[in-house]
Specification:
It comes from Thermonema lapsum. By secondary structure, the protein is an alpha+beta fold. 26% of the residues lie in helices and 31% in strands. The chain has a seven-stranded antiparallel sheet with strand order 4-5-6-10-9-8-7, with helices on both faces. It has a two-stranded antiparallel ribbon with strand order 1-3. Strands 2-11 form a two-stranded antiparallel ribbon. The longest helix is centred in the last third of the chain and has 20 residues.
Amino acid sequence: MKKFWYGCLCMLLLAACGEEVEYVPKPKGYNRIDLPKHEYQSLPDTFPYFFEYSKHAIIRPDSSWMAEPYWIHIIYPKFGYAEVQVTYKDISDSTEKKLMELINDSYHLTSKHQIKAYSIEETVFKNALGQKAAVFELSGEVPSQFQFYTTDSVRHFLRGALYFRTATKNDSLAPVIDFIKKDIIHMLNTARWNDNLPAKK
């Protein structure tokens, strides 16, 4: 009986040696991201600007050392690491030159990502109130994938940028990036100004 089992074992070993076993690595997996429906709420009327922003986001004042009045962060707690940083400038006492400086600064801040960006696509349009808005979509492993500004060219200038505070690659964040991009476009299309609010310097 021992000889029989020994013979079976030898045959199995010989058969295994004769076959080439190909190693196939497991594909890298990513955590599944469940996205909610797009729903919106109104920004409080205590700001000199107005827009509708996502019901899945919260507003927090910018607490950085360089923050100015009415600078905010729109934070998405569900995504933990995503936020839209919004800055505002009152240009009512400024010259046309100052407006152009702000617009040029927007282009300059976007162009800083050129080193890592595969491409930067610019789109300029007018929202429902006829106000100019420009959006910049950046591709590649950049820290900010979407930037924008809008202005009435007279008193108000609003700029924003989407940031993800995570080391996760943008390819795996793509569904969340697209989700927030749609929210930003909705913000711009619903943007208007509150001229009754006194300016803060």
